[in-house]
Design goal:
The structure is a single chain. By secondary structure, this protein is α+β, with helices and mostly antiparallel strands. The protein folds into two domains: 41 residues; 149 residues, no CATH class. It contains four helices and six strands. A hairpin with a 4-residue loop joins strand 1 and strand 2. Helix 2 runs antiparallel to helix 4.
Length: 210
């Protein structure tokens, strides 16, 4: 004969198992309902791309050693740093084209990041209209594949600086990093240790529209 205390223990364990099964079933049912509600509320349309705007790219030409303005309509983000990266990416895509007048491999993926840093005035104040320093972080693969030569390297640097200033007038200074680190030159000649002042850049030659 089963002792009375064991019978009571068995009944309690059985009741607990039944209760736990009911609770688990309810949790599974609620999770399924939340999943269905999530699917119903999920967006059915793809996120909108950035609106297209007219941009000015300062494109280098090896034929005459000039930097010419080219006007394009591009989708540009509203965030200034993302906008700067998109502009420079399009510029380097032009250079990566086999028919480019300034052939440089790499394309848009050669730009890791662009940081915009407000500069204080003589009194140490920073306002919404303060000039900005652009820090362009290039990828090492772009630098290692860039053609060597004083003129071709200088044209690349000047076209990057001029493109930033043409579209983001607050950018008055530009510095370069490579894989997040300072580097002496672009490909042996153009100085990447200095700060480039956009006011001192060689004036661009007016170019054609595309």
């Amino acid at each position: 004969m089963i002792p009375r205390h064991q019978t009571i223990l068995f009944i309690v364990l059985l009741a607990a198992s039944v209760i736990m099964s009911v609770l688990l079933w309810n949790q599974l049912r609620r999770a399924h309902e939340r999943l269905l509600r999530g699917e119903d509320s999920a967006p059915t349309q793809a996120p909108q791309v950035a609106p297209a705007e007219q941009a000015t790219l300062m494109v280098a030409s090896d034929a005459d050693g000039s930097v010419q303005s080219r006007f394009l309509t591009l989708p540009l983000p509203q965030n200034p740093e993302a906008r700067a990266r998109a502009l420079l990416g399009r510029l380097l895509d032009i250079y990566a084209d086999p028919e480019s007048a300034h052939p440089v491999p790499g394309g848009a993926d050669s730009i890791s990041q662009v940081f915009l840093i407000p500069l204080a005035d003589s009194s140490g104040k920073i306002t919404s209209s303060s000039p900005e320093l652009a820090v362009v972080n290039l990828k090492g693969s772009f630098v290692s594949g860039h053609p060597s030569g004083l003129e071709t390297e200088t044209l690349t640097v000047l076209s990057i600086c001029s493109t930033l200033n043409a579209n983001l007038p607050h950018v008055t200074q530009v510095r370069f990093l490579v894989d997040g680190q300072p580097r002496a030159t672009l490909a042996g000649h153009a100085d990447l240790t200095r700060t480039y002042l956009t006011s001192e850049l060689t004036p661009a030659v007016a170019g054609a529209r595309q």
